Amino acid sequence: MDTAIIKMSTNDLDKIIYKQLAGEIDFKRGLDSAISILLDNTSIESCVFYFLDFHEDTLNVEAMSLRDDIKALEQSILGYHIDVNKNIPDSQAIRDEQILLLNKDNIECYDDHISTVYKSWSISEFVVFPLFFKHDAIGTFQAISHTGSFSQEQIDEINEILTIVIPFLYSSYKYEVFVRQNDTIEESGGKHQQIISLINQIGGISCFTELFDLVLSRLITHYYFHFGGIFTNVDGFLIPQHWKTINTDYDEKISQLKVWANHNLCSLSSTDGAMSSSFENDSLIYIPDIDKIISLPMAEHDRNALNQIKEIKSTVFIPIRQNERAIGVVWLGSICNITTLNFSDKEMLEAVASYLGIAMENTRMYEETEKQKEEIEDLNRRLNIKVKKLEQIATHDYLTGLYNFGYFQNVLANMLGKNNRRNKKHDSISLVMADIDHFKSFNDTYGHEAGNIALKQVADIINDLARSADVVCRYGGEEFVVVLPDCEINGAAQFAERVRSRIEATPIVIDGNEINITISLGCTICDSGYSSRACVSKADNKLYQAKENGRNRVEY
Question: Catalytic residue positions?
Fold first, then answer.
């Protein structure tokens, strides 16, 4: 670094500082004067003033002077703020009340974006001075060298000037804080109402698409942007979740940008550009006029994005916060026209983005709850199907599909029990038992597979001829039983005869050959007071008679 600086006496310097800063209540003019004094009287090549905001939780870039080759960056960096809780040298300098010297040997000790700035600005060395007035921390000053290093003498000279300057700046700083607080309250009155209205609308939305569309529509319209996108962190990349454009004249251009963004994902590293930096530093980044920085060095991802729509003039990236950490970014941009944002506008944008983070969590929980409800309902449906299948297995014969012996016993006992309890002597219950004639011989001749075919066909015929109230069951082997409620013995005999004649007239087809079979049936009426065993015994006796009397007949 060139150290050929013409030094003036301390008294002369005091006079200059007093002349330029005494009585100056305009904070910006005071800072510009302070920077001029520092640049004229020290070896500083670039410098930045950070001051704590009125909440004292962020450091804001209030004034700066960059070397000519990167001077255009000033308009996008002014107003930039960063959380004091981040791992940055400025926070450490204030916390430890110590001057910090940073170069390539220790720059990696801090958050990645510090290294990114160090490299992109071609910094050789910089010094961070904590700014205090009567033990009241107000900010930091960064003295930057691009071509060499700072000697201890040079650091002392800078610190001496800052010691003289700060008391003059303190009053205007406090006045600026007061004015900003007051302006925020006044300017945000109507905007607060709009934000409250937006928040009320957001509160009633339980769908991500509707939520994103509403927020982007309102922000684009209210702040005079032309397009917007919402990106969220998914596995270390900022993934585009939703896009919105108000003016249809730009649909084609925005579509081109959307396609590019979907195929060129932005990583979380600040080296990937402004969006990543906004996410990583949890800080709004506003670039009012892109034309002024387009010729400067920038991240490849940013330059490629701007190449998709060369007419983009202004852009802003706002971190979406959830539980005090960034989970995504809102990107707003204007085309052809510059969009101006003041201090209050930026605060409102950050407030909306923060509430969006809360709304996203609520929506996620709602969708998860709805999904769980659907999963539970689906599980219940599948369980019901399985229960029905189990009931089918427990109560039905696998081969014929008819009710099985166990079900028959329960049904007959229940019917008889109800009749006996109510003394309903006139609600007759008849029973028909059937047995395929010479079935053992049929099986021996044609095989068990043919026997199964015969059993199934007989079961289908009986079931087809039965009434809906009748209970058709496979009793066991080649035997079947039918419970006929509200049926007298003559009706049971007629039913049995229809079954007999249909089976006799319907041959079994085995390997293309028709084989005739017959069936014998016995019918009985279950008298009042009879047990199910007694009824079955009576029907079985009638079936035995049919067998004894030549088979292929009905006895009752």
Answer: 478
